[in-house]
Design a protein that fits this description.
This protein is mainly alpha-helical. 75% of the residues lie in helices and 0% in strands. The protein is globular and about 65 Å long. The two termini are 29 Å apart. It contains twelve helices and no strands.
């Protein structure tokens, strides 16, 4: 992933420098001279592979963001089901909680000014941080008490040494791993573009690499800690595996509220792409001469339909969250994260060394292999052990 993201940053550097000198590295195959002020992932794809490449990247981003929202529509009902069952002893089906999510998310998706989501997103981040830290506390406490005949430190060491073997569905790890960075690769170029001073722009790739490496380290520690604590009995929705208590319930509620608030932000990119695509198609067919109010109604209709479609898919896959996440990551995430960035860099770089070109081809090829292998095996084994938690 770090190599692939570096390819995208190098492609940005090439096109950014070309814009400064009035030249473009994107004139391939008699390409267009279209120029834009702001560079983005789809724009780099356009300059490297033309309109088809741009549309493929846009479609991939839209579908991947929608896939993340789909996992939210499965995750929250499971959390709320467990929380209410513990607090009140009432068994309310996850299907009813899915309806609650629909009722809440449809009006929230009508928000067109993304700045209005800033306060709720800040609160969501705070709740997620609380949930992560509390889950770590639960994990270490559980692992420390797993061996009552020895002390906490020795118990932790024993749990780490004798980790439960991986289950047969280890291949799901590929899609899971890719989807962890679903927002990072798409925001990489806009973040680099937004850095103000030239000096800071030069520092950004190194800072970004350290940040991503730190995130990977934290994910690894978090995963191993919970693996030590819960073993193979852990549910895909980790919060439903926590020992029943008021603290565990608070974590489940915190995560549910956080996801309810972040859902509109996650859905925003795919919604914007869908709305602009529809508007462009209508305009090209001479059907687009509508007022601002009509456009708002059109956007709200598209938003509502998209959420209903995602909800229908969530209803049919409610007990297969692991498979859904794996399929989204492998089928959609692998091309966006591993395949397109090296191809874009190879196409835009004029003086690329043979070793770098070979490295780009290898990474892109591995991305394709991972996509095909993980997607096919996930689909083939879909009706195996349910892993929704």
């Amino acid at each position: 992933y770090l190599y692939s993201s570096q390819c995208l940053l190098d492609a940005w550097k090439i096109e950014s420098s070309a814009a400064a000198t009035g030249e473009s590295a994107s004139l391939l195959n008699g390409g267009s001279s279209r120029r834009r002020i702001m560079l983005s992932y789809p724009e780099l794809a356009y300059r490297a592979m033309g309109p088809v490449g741009e549309q493929m990247v846009k479609l991939g981003i839209a579908l991947m963001q929608s896939g993340v929202c789909l996992t939210y529509l499965i995750f929250v009902p499971h959390n709320l089901y467990t929380s209410v069952l513990h607090m009140f002893g009432v068994n309310i089906s996850t299907d009813y909680w899915l309806i609650v999510m629909i009722v809440m998310q449809i009006p929230l998706s009508w928000i067109r000014d993304i700045r209005k989501l800033t306060p709720t997103n800040f609160l969501a981040n705070a709740l997620i941080l609380y949930g992560l830290l509390t889950c770590l506390v639960f994990a270490f406490d559980q692992a420390a008490r797993a061996n009552p005949n020895v002390g906490p430190a020795e118990s932790l060491e024993l749990q780490l040494i004798h980790l439960s073997p991986l289950r047969s569905q280890w291949y799901l790890f590929i899609g899971f791993s890719v989807l962890m960075f679903e927002g990072s690769i798409t925001l990489l170029v806009p973040l680099q573009e937004a850095v103000h001073t030239e000096e800071d722009r030069k520092k950004f790739p190194n800072v970004y690499g350290w940040v991503i490496s730190s995130v990977i380290v934290f994910y690894t520690i978090f995963a191993v800690s919970n693996w030590m604590a819960f073993g193979n009995s852990v549910n895909t929705v980790l919060t439903t595996s926590l020992p029943p208590s008021h603290l565990a319930t608070s974590v489940q509620l915190a995560y549910s509220i956080a996801i309810i608030f972040t859902f509109p932000l996650q859905n925003f990119p795919s919604l914007e792409i869908a709305c602009k695509t529809v508007s462009t198609q209508l305009s090209e067919r001479g059907c687009m001469n509508i007022s601002k109010q009509s456009y708002v109604l059109q956007r709200n209709l598209i938003a509502s339909i998209s959420i209903l479609v995602l909800a229908a898919i969530a209803f049919s896959t409610m007990n297969s969250l692991a498979k859904v996440v794996s399929l989204m990551g492998s089928l959609l995430g692998c091309p966006i994260a591993y395949v397109f960035p090296p191809i874009i860099h190879t196409q835009l770089a004029k003086d690329i060394s043979p070793w770098r070109r070979a490295g780009n081809h290898i990474v892109a090829g591995l991305g394709v292999i991972a996509m095909v292998f993980a997607s096919i095996i996930t689909i083939v084994t879909w009706n195996g052990t349910a892993s929704g938690g």
